[in-house]
Amino acid sequence: MAVEVGTKVTGKVTGITKFGAFVELGDGKTGLVHISEVSDAYVKDIHDVLHVGEPVTVKVLSIQDGKIGLSIRKAVDKPQQREHESNHHEGRQVSSPHQGNNRFQGGARNGGNHFGHKAQQPAKGDFDAMMSGYLKESEDRLSVLRRNTEGKRGGRGGRRS
Quick check: pTM over 0.85? Predict the structure, then answer.
């Protein structure tokens, strides 16, 4: 059977490393399932999920220079969720990382936070946008704190005359 990108293939786990698992696909071909492609859930130790000799169904993600990139989690058929159901996972509600953390969200007066900035809500599931928004907010908060403590006695790096 020819191995092509996008196809689902049944294989057998032949080796496990700390970064993934090697899967024999037949015809003497072996591919790698990266640890991030093993499961939708976080995998701390791949040995908890896969074992050598275990049969697995994988999806071929890429073939470059004879190296075959595989995914177990993309080979699993998942039912399509409607948008309002995307906040629930296996019957329990999944909270956003900022839900319940109202330490800096007292800006109900104008929809912003304590520093007068509008709270940014990145698109759901867009981790990179969420992280860049978080970093920007952190840098803004840090600069405001530095500015406020700079002129006070005992502040770090304050003005000295």
Answer: no
Task: Say yes or no to pLDDT of 16 above 90.
Answer: yes
What is the C-alpha to C-alpha distance for residues 73 and 75, in angstroms, rounded to an integer? 5
Residue count (the chain)? 161
Query: Quick one: how many helices (H) and strands (E) in the chain?
Result: 1, 7
Give the Cα separation of 78 and 41 in Å (integer). 14
1-15 pLDDT per residue, tens: 678 899 999 999 999
Instruction: Please check whether residue 90 is in contact with residue 50, taking contact to mean a CB–CB distance below 8 angstroms.
Output: no
Reduced to 3 states, what is the DSSP secondary structure of residue 139?
helix
- Which letter does DSSP use for residue 148 in this model? H
CA 147 vs CA 85, 103, 121, 151, 156: distances in Å: 43, 20, 26, 8, 11
7-71: CATH class = mainly beta
Distance CA 121, CA 60 (A): 34
pLDDT confidence of residue 109: 46
Dist CA 114 CA 148 (whole Å): 14
